[in-house]
Every structure is written in structure tokens, then in C-alpha cells.
Design brief:
This protein is an alpha+beta fold. The chain contains four helices and eight strands. An eight-stranded mixed β-sheet has the order 1-2-3-4-5-6-7-8, with no helix packed on it. β6 and β7 form a beta hairpin.
């Protein structure tokens, strides 16, 4: 995962240490630190770049985000107030509002057991994300800008910028984690 400018995220010393430990494990083929390998939710925002097609549905009182990964979803209630944080969740707790033609979603209270990317980039339980979604080219593309703030592992807020192509007849795919998980394949092989 790179910043919008193409650089490395601004990890602090603790974040760098944890990331390097995970990189060393990955070099040995060890993904034990990645709970998604055991079919746990991949979490947000990682699901945007590791989870396959997704769907955004605007409803009167909320925004529904549906993801291919294990058929997980999240919602953001329309509100001018920041989200009322409850218990940590894999996809956080979110509120949404419009800023002109841009949908702005504020999210917080993420379960810190998830990763920001498949390479092991960490985040803490104080991660806060401001998401900005804007349709481009008459709705054929979607621009997504994320500003992430996480004092546990980063020295400053940082931005990720993404673009997606709309697939008019696209659908969220069926995803059965146990069928693709090496963790479960190994368990079944032992029986």
C-alpha cells in the first residue's frame, strides 16, 4: 500500500518494527498474523484493494457497502455528526454526508486485528478514516480518496487515492472463504 503521492506510509518506529516483523514472516511463507487467512473479515479499508468487486447502494437514511470478500458489508448512516463509537468492528463504525457531489464517510473504532494490506501494514484501534467518494466521467468511474489518521503506528495523517471502473452489469461474487483458504485446506488434509 502506497500513499497518494506514491510514497511509503509515514510509519513511526513502533509501526516500522511491527511491519518489518511481518515482512520477515511473509518471506518464510508464514501468514499467521493475517487472520483473513483463517476466514476472518478482511476489514476496511483493505477490502477496497484485496477483496474483489464491491457495491455501493445509496438509501434514504444510510449508505450500504457490499463486498465480495466473504460477502461482508458495512453501513454508514447519514448524519452531520461523527460516528458514535461503540465496540471495535472489522469494518469500523461510520456516518455519511454529502459535500456537493462528493459522498464523505467518517469511520472509526476499527478492530485492530485487521491489516491495511496483505503485506502486513498495521493499524491501531484509534484508526480514523475520512473517505471521499466521487463519480467521474458521467458515472463510469469512481474516485475514492481516503485520509487515514492513526497515532499508534503513524507519524502523520496520510492519503490513499484510488480509481475504479464501473461495471454496469457487475455483481458481487459469491465467496466461500474455506474453499480458497490454505488454512482450511491444511486442516482437511490432516483428517
Amino acid at each position: 500500500l502506497r500513499t497518494a503521492g506514491g510514497g511509503a506510509p509515514p510509519l513511526n518506529a513502533e509501526g516500522r518494527k511491527l511491519y518489518q516483523q511481518r515482512q520477515a514472516l511473509l518471506a518464510k511463507g508464514d501468514t499467521s498474523f493475517d487472520l483473513s487467512a483463517k476466514c476472518k473479515p478482511i476489514g476496511f479499508p483493505r477490502v477496497l484493494w484485496d477483496g474483489g468487486p464491491f457495491d455501493i447502494q445509496l438509501q434514504r437514511e444510510l449508505v450500504f457497502f457490499g463486498y465480495t470478500w466473504n460477502r461482508n458489508h458495512r453501513t454508514a448512516a447519514f448524519s452531520d455528526q461523527p460516528p458514535k463509537l461503540q465496540i471495535p468492528r472489522y469494518y469500523g463504525t461510520s456516518t455519511a454526508k454529502w459535500d456537493g457531489d462528493t459522498l464523505v464517510v467518517q469511520s472509526g473504532l476499527f478492530n485492530d486485528a485487521t491489516l491495511l494490506d496483505s503485506a502486513g501494514l498495521p493499524h491501531g484501534d484509534e484508526l480514523a478514516i475520512v473517505e471521499r467518494y466521487r463519480a467521474l466521467d458521467g458515472g463510469k468511474q469512481l474516485e475514492v480518496k481516503l485520509t487515514m489518521t492513526d497515532p499508534a503506528y503513524y507519524t502523520a495523517p496520510w492519503e490513499v487515492s484510488l480509481r475504479y471502473q464501473r461495471v454496469a452489469s457487475g455483481r458481487i461474487l459469491e465467496d466461500v472463504c474455506q474453499e480458497r483458504s490454505t488454512f482450511y485446506k491444511e486442516l482437511l488434509r490432516r483428517k
